[in-house]
Amino acid sequence: MERSWYWRVALVVAVAILSIYQLVPSWFYFKLPPDQRNTEAYDTSVPGWAPDAKHHLNLGLDLQGGILLSMGVDVDRAVKTKVARRADEIGEFLKGKNVAFTGTQVVGGGAQVEVTAANPGEVKDAVLGSTGYSEEMYSPGGAPEGAVRFAFKDAVLRDFREKAVKQAEKVIRNRVDKWGVTEPDIKTKANNQIQVQLPGFKDPEKAKELLGRTAQLEFKIADDENPVLDQVRTQLPQCQGDRQGLSLPLPESGCWTVEPVELPNGGSRAATMVAANTRTELEKVIEEKLNPLLDPQKNVVGIGEGQVGQGPIKTTYYRTYLLRAKTELTGDYIADAAVAIDQSDTLQRGRPVVSFKMSPEGARLMDKLTSENMRRRMATVLDDKVETAPYIQGRISSNGQITLGSGRNQQDMFDEANGIALVLKAGALPAPVTITEERTVGATLGPELVRKGTLAALVGLALVVVFMVVYYRGTGLVADVALALNGLLVLAVMSMIGTTLTLPGIAGFVLTLGMAVDANVLINERIREEMRAGRNVRQSVQLGYDRVFWTIVDSHVTTLVAGVVLFQYGSGPIRGFAVTLIIGLVASMFTSIVVTRVIMEYFTRHDTARLSV
Q1: Within 385-502, where are the H helices?
Q2: Which domain range does residue 269 map to?
Q3: In whole angstroms, how far apart are CA 64 and each of 39, 198, 449?
Q4: Half-sphere CA count of 499, side-chain side, radius 13 A
Q5: Contact call for residues 402 and 340 (beta carbons, < 8 A)
Q6: Are residues 459 and 374 in the same domain?
Q7: 216: which DSSP letter?
Q8: How far apart are the first and last CA of the chain?
Q9: Which alpha helices (DSSP H) does 327-444 contain, by range?
Q10: Which of 365, 410, 430, 560 could potentially form a cystine with 164 if both were Cys, beta carbons 3.0 to 4.6 Å apart?
Q11: Backbone angles phi, psi at 101, to 5 degrees
């Protein structure tokens, strides 16, 4: 035998052993009941010498069940938020340029910024004379006397809307990846829709909570010196209670009470706070009673939680915070976030908190914010909820933390802290999203599809194996051995790269087995032709493989190109089919050209060898 033959034998044996080795985690994965496959029971069942437990064969949504969510991105609200921020930026810009103006506000349904000034022309020249603003904005006209308006150019808004959807998809993908769901399918559809498939996940409420929350983290300064809410004392009843807290339940209409607040000048005052049993009740009170008292350009009312009771048994109520309208800092400047244990000498000591680290620019802005508002309360607002409002006792720059509400057990607080940290670390959604469609594939449907798909594949494979042995006898048996290795290799590669086996993927798997058989038929028929021409067995085998080589390569490569196109431009089931097809075609070429030839050359190593073809 030639030396190259031994190298090819070593290659075939190595591929077979590695394929079996790679499928060890999959063997233990599918031995377990479906409800234990993604738990610690699976991790502990995989032997230590086996590959990483996460490298098992994944089943798609159509096979193992899971959750499908369609999410709509509210790009119009994102545009309004962008315009509002630009209004604040223009105000700061004009102050820095010493341009006199009265105020800035958002008009035109949230689409334009209006600046009032004694000399509107000077404001217009200053803003549009700046390169940064002139590239994105223009003055549309139509402003009242003593004012000038600015709006974003259509091209800028169009680009922003497209990027908002793409960024939302990226953020959702980051959250799912950090969550640990295997092989999610996330793609953008028409009309600002994002479709998310979570195979094997069974908790739709948790999925919606994680993916749907905007995680808009804002830092606002509390306006404790402002007595504007004191007027509500004549409109609402006073809350009842004692030094230990309010007496619950509160009146359905809400009630007022006072809380002592410290002032920057060193004094203190009894500030008015409105409380209610539920957030819905409090929002109604704010809309009907408090908002009419406020100047929306100066103040907003934030909603937080309070607890009544002692020890582990506490009851939650909802309360107000009077905040400045301007958002001083956002979560866009957060570089990292993690769960930590509070080590401060307060009542929060030992409880989970969310520790975050600011980006370099965020650290600079935070340092400026805290130094200018010493001894004022700074509210941390996450998703329109005031999580905490501590006093600024010193300058803060690169690090900070979010303190969670108490009154729950430790595990619940850890879960909430983990969720907040995950969302902040993965990024905030650029625009709110709403769940427009929710579908859950039941646990009984997946196994049924798996059973039928597997049965179809096995029946087809068995018929092919029998046909090859009956029709081609010895060479047919060699082809069957290569066919078995082909299937083993396909599953092993899918496990190794972490791809997902879907129902269309099973169809692709069966198709590649058929192409592998077709290649062996071509080889066997070519060998028969050479033997009918009077050549001995060894020569017939060598010439048969040599002359059919490019025919096999051509048929496989043309199909491979089609598979690549399907993978590149397809989605969902189509990509599942394409992935299996591509892997199967490469495996088919290897087994048809290399594996069967190694076996055939062994049995025909002598000219006098007899081989049934």
Answers
A1: 410-426, 445-472, 474-497
A2: 217-428
A3: 15, 10, 8
A4: 22
A5: no
A6: no
A7: -
A8: 22
A9: 360-372, 410-426
A10: 430
A11: -155, 160
Angle of the 474-497 helix axis to the 445-472 helix axis, nearest 10:
150
DSSP type of residue 143: P
Q: How far is CA 588 from the centre of its chain?
A: 35
Distance of CA 465 to the CA centre of its chain: 44
Q: Are residues 408 and 464 in the same domain?
A: no
How far apart, in whole angstroms, are the C-alpha atoms of residue 475 and residue 611?
8
Q: CA torsion angle for 118, 120, 126, 130 (degrees, to 10)?
A: 150
- Residue 268 covered by a domain: yes
Structural tokens at position 129: 């004379």
The CATH number of residue 500's host domain is 1.20.1640.10
Element (H, E) at 433: strand 433-441
Residue 241 lies in a domain: yes
Residue range 459-491, pLDDT digits in tens:
877 888 888 888 888 888 888 888 888 889 988
Q: 256 or 597: whose pLDDT is higher? A: 256
422 with 447, same domain? no
pLDDT in tens, 334-352: 777 788 887 766 666 778 8
Residues in the chain: 613
Residue pair 110/83 in contact (Cβ under 8 Å)? The answer is: yes
Number of domains in the chain: 2
290 plus 393 within the same structural domain: yes
- Indicate left, alpha or beta for 141 from its phi (over 0: left) and psi (-120 to 50: alpha): left
The one-letter amino acid code at 316 reads T
Q: What is the pTM of this model?
A: 0.51
Q: Hey, what are 367's tokens?
A: 């340092």
CA distance 447 to 259: 59
Cis peptide bond upstream of 249, omega within 30: yes
Query: 254 — alpha (psi -120 to 50), left (phi > 0) or beta?
Result: left
| Closest to 403 measured CA to CA, from 391, 417, 415, 392 | 417
pLDDT surpassing 60 at residue 445: no
User: Hey, what amino acid is at 113?
Assistant: V
